[in-house]
Amino acid sequence: MPLRRPTIFLARSTLGLGLWALASSPGLAAEAPAVPVPPPLPPERPSELKPAQPAEQKPAPTSEPAMPTPPVRPAELTTPAKDPAPEAQKPEIPTPPPTPPERPAELSGEAALALKVAPPDDTACRARLRRLGVAFEPLPAIAEGQCTAPLPLKVTKLADDIALPGGATLTCQVAESFARWATEVQVVADRTLKHPLTGLDLGGTYVCRGQNHDVDAKLSEHAFAAAVDVMGFAFAGHPSIAVKAMPAGSEEEEFLTSVRGKACGFFRTVLGPGSNAAHANHFHLDDRERNAGHRLCE
Ligand SMILES: [Zn+2]
Fold it and tell me: What is the distance between the terminal CA atoms of the chain, rounded to a whole angstrom?
Protein backbone atom coordinates (compact mmCIF):
# COMPACT_ATOMS: atom_id res chain seq x y z
CA MET A 1 0.00 0.00 0.00
CA PRO A 2 2.37 2.69 -1.23
CA LEU A 3 -0.27 5.53 -1.74
CA ARG A 4 -1.55 5.98 1.88
CA ARG A 5 1.24 8.12 3.23
CA PRO A 6 0.78 11.11 0.84
CA THR A 7 -2.99 11.12 1.66
CA ILE A 8 -2.41 11.45 5.35
CA PHE A 9 0.05 14.31 4.68
CA LEU A 10 -2.58 16.06 2.51
CA ALA A 11 -5.31 15.66 5.12
CA ARG A 12 -3.01 17.22 7.79
CA SER A 13 -2.26 20.17 5.48
CA THR A 14 -5.92 20.78 4.77
CA LEU A 15 -6.77 20.81 8.47
CA GLY A 16 -4.07 23.38 9.06
CA LEU A 17 -5.29 25.65 6.30
CA GLY A 18 -8.88 25.41 7.57
CA LEU A 19 -7.84 26.45 11.10
CA TRP A 20 -5.88 29.39 9.71
CA ALA A 21 -8.95 30.48 7.62
CA LEU A 22 -11.21 30.32 10.69
CA ALA A 23 -8.91 32.40 12.84
CA SER A 24 -8.21 35.13 10.27
CA SER A 25 -11.77 35.68 9.07
CA PRO A 26 -13.79 37.95 11.42
CA GLY A 27 -17.04 36.95 9.81
CA LEU A 28 -16.45 33.34 10.37
CA ALA A 29 -15.07 33.93 13.86
CA ALA A 30 -18.38 35.35 15.08
CA GLU A 31 -20.32 32.34 13.93
CA ALA A 32 -17.79 29.72 14.86
CA PRO A 33 -17.17 28.95 18.49
CA ALA A 34 -13.94 30.63 19.64
CA VAL A 35 -11.16 28.21 19.96
CA PRO A 36 -8.82 29.70 22.55
CA VAL A 37 -5.26 29.56 21.40
CA PRO A 38 -3.01 30.04 24.31
CA PRO A 39 0.08 32.02 23.46
CA PRO A 40 3.06 29.83 23.18
CA LEU A 41 5.13 29.89 26.27
CA PRO A 42 8.73 30.82 25.75
CA PRO A 43 11.09 28.00 26.41
CA GLU A 44 12.55 27.84 29.81
CA ARG A 45 15.94 29.67 29.87
CA PRO A 46 18.89 27.79 31.19
CA SER A 47 19.52 28.81 34.73
CA GLU A 48 23.08 29.99 34.05
CA LEU A 49 21.70 32.66 31.67
CA LYS A 50 19.06 33.94 34.06
CA PRO A 51 19.66 37.49 35.31
CA ALA A 52 20.77 37.54 38.90
CA GLN A 53 18.04 38.61 41.20
CA PRO A 54 18.97 41.95 42.82
CA ALA A 55 19.46 41.03 46.45
CA GLU A 56 19.10 44.56 47.75
CA GLN A 57 19.02 48.11 46.45
CA LYS A 58 22.61 49.34 46.28
CA PRO A 59 23.25 53.09 46.51
CA ALA A 60 24.12 54.76 43.28
CA PRO A 61 27.89 55.07 42.88
CA THR A 62 29.17 58.55 43.64
CA SER A 63 31.16 60.45 41.08
CA GLU A 64 34.45 59.98 43.01
CA PRO A 65 35.70 56.68 44.28
CA ALA A 66 36.03 56.53 48.04
CA MET A 67 39.56 57.60 49.21
CA PRO A 68 41.47 55.16 51.30
CA THR A 69 41.58 56.15 54.93
CA PRO A 70 44.96 57.82 55.74
CA PRO A 71 47.05 56.19 58.44
CA VAL A 72 46.76 57.70 61.87
CA ARG A 73 49.60 60.17 62.58
CA PRO A 74 51.72 59.55 65.63
CA ALA A 75 50.74 61.71 68.56
CA GLU A 76 54.04 63.64 68.63
CA LEU A 77 53.47 64.78 65.03
CA THR A 78 49.92 65.79 65.51
CA THR A 79 49.27 69.47 66.02
CA PRO A 80 47.21 69.98 69.10
CA ALA A 81 43.78 71.01 68.12
CA LYS A 82 43.25 74.68 68.69
CA ASP A 83 40.35 75.80 70.65
CA PRO A 84 39.25 78.83 68.71
CA ALA A 85 36.80 80.01 71.28
CA PRO A 86 39.19 81.33 73.97
CA GLU A 87 41.42 82.83 71.27
CA ALA A 88 38.60 84.87 69.86
CA GLN A 89 37.52 86.01 73.28
CA LYS A 90 40.98 87.25 74.28
CA PRO A 91 41.07 91.03 74.56
CA GLU A 92 43.72 92.83 72.51
CA ILE A 93 46.34 93.85 75.08
CA PRO A 94 49.63 94.98 73.47
CA THR A 95 52.66 93.40 75.10
CA PRO A 96 55.00 96.11 76.40
CA PRO A 97 58.57 95.88 75.05
CA PRO A 98 61.16 94.57 77.48
CA THR A 99 62.64 97.29 79.61
CA PRO A 100 66.29 97.98 78.72
CA PRO A 101 68.76 97.75 81.58
CA GLU A 102 69.48 100.93 83.45
CA ARG A 103 72.30 102.92 81.92
CA PRO A 104 75.17 103.87 84.20
CA ALA A 105 74.68 107.34 85.62
CA GLU A 106 77.71 108.76 83.79
CA LEU A 107 76.19 107.75 80.43
CA SER A 108 72.70 109.05 81.17
CA GLY A 109 71.02 112.39 80.75
CA GLU A 110 73.08 115.55 81.10
CA ALA A 111 76.19 113.64 82.07
CA ALA A 112 76.16 111.81 78.72
CA LEU A 113 75.54 115.08 76.89
CA ALA A 114 78.46 116.70 78.68
CA LEU A 115 80.63 113.68 77.81
CA LYS A 116 79.75 114.09 74.14
CA VAL A 117 80.06 117.85 73.97
CA ALA A 118 82.99 118.54 76.24
CA PRO A 119 86.27 117.84 74.44
CA PRO A 120 89.22 116.46 76.36
CA ASP A 121 91.17 119.08 78.25
CA ASP A 122 94.24 120.01 76.21
CA THR A 123 95.44 122.78 78.49
CA ALA A 124 98.45 120.89 79.83
CA CYS A 125 99.39 119.58 76.38
CA ARG A 126 99.29 123.06 74.87
CA ALA A 127 101.50 124.34 77.63
CA ARG A 128 104.06 121.64 76.85
CA LEU A 129 103.93 122.56 73.13
CA ARG A 130 104.72 126.18 73.93
CA ARG A 131 107.64 125.16 76.13
CA LEU A 132 108.95 123.05 73.19
CA GLY A 133 108.98 126.20 71.04
CA VAL A 134 106.12 125.05 68.76
CA ALA A 135 104.07 127.75 67.00
CA PHE A 136 100.39 126.82 66.74
CA GLU A 137 96.86 128.15 66.92
CA PRO A 138 93.60 126.41 67.75
CA LEU A 139 91.23 125.47 64.91
CA PRO A 140 87.46 124.96 65.05
CA ALA A 141 86.34 121.43 65.84
CA ILE A 142 86.31 119.06 62.87
CA ALA A 143 83.20 116.95 62.25
CA GLU A 144 82.89 115.56 58.73
CA GLY A 145 80.76 112.47 59.08
CA GLN A 146 82.93 109.96 60.91
CA CYS A 147 86.03 112.15 60.55
CA THR A 148 86.32 114.07 63.77
CA ALA A 149 88.77 116.11 65.81
CA PRO A 150 87.25 118.09 68.67
CA LEU A 151 90.34 120.23 69.39
CA PRO A 152 92.59 120.41 66.32
CA LEU A 153 95.58 122.70 66.18
CA LYS A 154 97.17 124.43 63.22
CA VAL A 155 100.91 123.91 63.77
CA THR A 156 103.04 126.26 61.69
CA LYS A 157 106.56 125.88 63.11
CA LEU A 158 108.46 123.49 65.28
CA ALA A 159 111.30 124.22 67.68
CA ASP A 160 114.38 126.03 66.29
CA ASP A 161 112.19 127.58 63.58
CA ILE A 162 111.79 124.31 61.71
CA ALA A 163 109.29 125.31 59.02
CA LEU A 164 106.17 123.37 58.11
CA PRO A 165 105.13 124.83 54.74
CA GLY A 166 101.36 124.86 54.60
CA GLY A 167 101.13 123.97 58.28
CA ALA A 168 99.89 120.82 59.93
CA THR A 169 96.42 120.15 61.34
CA LEU A 170 96.97 117.89 64.32
CA THR A 171 95.66 117.01 67.73
CA CYS A 172 97.78 118.42 70.51
CA GLN A 173 98.96 114.94 71.51
CA VAL A 174 100.23 114.07 68.03
CA ALA A 175 101.67 117.57 67.54
CA GLU A 176 103.65 117.09 70.73
CA SER A 177 105.03 113.71 69.59
CA PHE A 178 105.84 115.25 66.21
CA ALA A 179 107.65 118.19 67.78
CA ARG A 180 109.65 115.92 70.09
CA TRP A 181 110.65 113.69 67.17
CA ALA A 182 111.69 116.79 65.16
CA THR A 183 114.18 117.74 67.88
CA GLU A 184 115.69 114.25 67.49
CA VAL A 185 115.80 114.74 63.71
CA GLN A 186 117.70 117.96 64.29
CA VAL A 187 120.28 116.05 66.34
CA VAL A 188 120.63 113.38 63.62
CA ALA A 189 121.03 116.08 60.91
CA ASP A 190 123.82 117.75 62.87
CA ARG A 191 125.58 114.42 63.42
CA THR A 192 125.24 112.76 59.98
CA LEU A 193 124.97 115.73 57.58
CA LYS A 194 126.71 118.44 59.56
CA HIS A 195 123.92 120.81 58.50
CA PRO A 196 120.94 121.99 60.48
CA LEU A 197 117.39 120.93 59.69
CA THR A 198 115.29 123.89 58.54
CA GLY A 199 112.03 122.41 57.41
CA LEU A 200 109.84 119.39 56.91
CA ASP A 201 107.92 118.75 53.72
CA LEU A 202 104.55 117.26 54.73
CA GLY A 203 102.30 115.21 52.47
CA GLY A 204 99.23 115.52 54.63
CA THR A 205 98.00 115.64 58.19
CA TYR A 206 94.24 115.87 58.59
CA VAL A 207 92.53 114.12 55.64
CA CYS A 208 89.05 112.59 55.83
CA ARG A 209 89.78 109.20 54.23
CA GLY A 210 90.23 105.50 54.78
CA GLN A 211 93.56 103.79 55.27
CA ASN A 212 95.80 103.87 52.17
CA HIS A 213 93.18 106.07 50.47
CA ASP A 214 90.83 103.05 50.32
CA VAL A 215 87.26 104.28 50.79
CA ASP A 216 86.19 100.86 52.08
CA ALA A 217 89.04 100.53 54.55
CA LYS A 218 88.99 101.42 58.21
CA LEU A 219 89.34 105.17 58.71
CA SER A 220 92.93 106.33 58.71
CA GLU A 221 94.34 108.18 61.70
CA HIS A 222 94.53 111.08 59.26
CA ALA A 223 90.74 111.24 59.58
CA PHE A 224 91.19 112.21 63.25
CA ALA A 225 94.02 114.73 62.72
CA ALA A 226 96.23 112.17 64.40
CA ALA A 227 98.75 111.29 61.68
CA VAL A 228 101.55 112.99 59.71
CA ASP A 229 103.03 112.09 56.35
CA VAL A 230 106.61 113.35 55.97
CA MET A 231 107.75 113.59 52.35
CA GLY A 232 111.19 115.14 52.83
CA PHE A 233 113.66 117.16 54.90
CA ALA A 234 115.18 120.56 54.18
CA PHE A 235 118.54 121.75 55.53
CA ALA A 236 120.60 124.86 55.57
CA GLY A 237 123.51 124.45 53.14
CA HIS A 238 122.55 120.93 52.11
CA PRO A 239 120.25 119.56 49.43
CA SER A 240 116.87 118.41 50.64
CA ILE A 241 116.42 114.71 51.20
CA ALA A 242 113.24 113.15 49.88
CA VAL A 243 111.87 110.07 51.61
CA LYS A 244 112.51 107.11 49.30
CA ALA A 245 114.75 104.10 48.95
CA MET A 246 118.32 105.39 48.96
CA PRO A 247 121.55 103.71 47.83
CA ALA A 248 122.93 101.54 50.60
CA GLY A 249 125.78 103.23 52.47
CA SER A 250 124.89 106.77 51.31
CA GLU A 251 124.59 109.55 53.90
CA GLU A 252 120.98 110.04 52.79
CA GLU A 253 120.27 106.40 53.57
CA GLU A 254 122.00 106.73 56.94
CA PHE A 255 120.01 109.87 57.76
CA LEU A 256 116.65 108.40 56.73
CA THR A 257 117.25 105.11 58.53
CA SER A 258 118.25 106.94 61.68
CA VAL A 259 115.29 109.38 61.81
CA ARG A 260 112.89 106.56 60.98
CA GLY A 261 114.17 104.54 63.92
CA LYS A 262 113.84 107.59 66.20
CA ALA A 263 110.18 107.96 65.14
CA CYS A 264 109.38 104.59 66.69
CA GLY A 265 110.12 106.14 70.08
CA PHE A 266 107.32 108.70 69.62
CA PHE A 267 104.70 106.98 67.45
CA ARG A 268 103.08 103.55 67.65
CA THR A 269 102.83 103.38 63.84
CA VAL A 270 105.81 104.19 61.60
CA LEU A 271 105.62 103.18 57.94
CA GLY A 272 107.84 104.12 55.00
CA PRO A 273 109.71 102.82 51.95
CA GLY A 274 109.75 99.03 52.10
CA SER A 275 106.59 98.79 54.27
CA ASN A 276 104.30 98.69 51.25
CA ALA A 277 103.79 100.44 47.93
CA ALA A 278 101.55 103.10 49.49
CA HIS A 279 104.41 104.31 51.70
CA ALA A 280 107.29 104.17 49.21
CA ASN A 281 107.73 107.97 49.17
CA HIS A 282 106.93 109.13 52.71
CA PHE A 283 107.02 108.33 56.38
CA HIS A 284 103.58 107.82 57.88
CA LEU A 285 103.55 108.55 61.61
CA ASP A 286 100.58 108.03 63.91
CA ASP A 287 99.85 107.02 67.46
CA ARG A 288 96.95 104.57 67.03
CA GLU A 289 96.58 102.35 70.05
CA ARG A 290 96.66 98.63 69.43
CA ASN A 291 95.86 95.57 71.50
CA ALA A 292 98.43 94.76 74.17
CA GLY A 293 100.45 97.88 73.31
CA HIS A 294 101.51 96.38 69.98
CA ARG A 295 103.51 98.74 67.74
CA LEU A 296 103.89 98.83 63.99
CA CYS A 297 107.39 100.14 63.46
CA GLU A 298 108.74 99.15 60.05
ZN1 LIG B 1 99.80 108.74 56.31
Answer: 159
* Whole-Å CA distances, 92 to 87, 96, 233: 10, 12, 76
pLDDT of amino acid 291: 76
**Tens digits of residue pLDDT in 196-228:** 999 999 998 999 988 777 767 789 999 999 999
- Quote the ligand 1 centre to 179 CA distance (angstroms): 17
Domain ranges of the chain: 126-297
Q: How far is the CA of 102 from the centre of ligand 1 (A)?
A: 41
User: Which SS3 state, helix, strand or coil, does residue 74 take?
Assistant: coil
Angle at 178 between CA 115 and CA 237, to 5 degrees: 155
What is the 259 CA–ligand 1 centroid distance (Å)?
A: 16
Q: What is the mean pLDDT of the chain?
A: 76
Distance from the alpha carbon of residue 116 to the mean position of ligand 1, in angstroms: 27
Residue type, 136: F
Please name which of 171, 175, 200 lies closest in space to residue 259, comparing C-alpha atoms: 200
CA of 288 to the centre of ligand 1 (A): 12
Q: The whole model's pTM is what?
A: 0.60
Pairing mode of beta strands 153-158, 135-138:
antiparallel
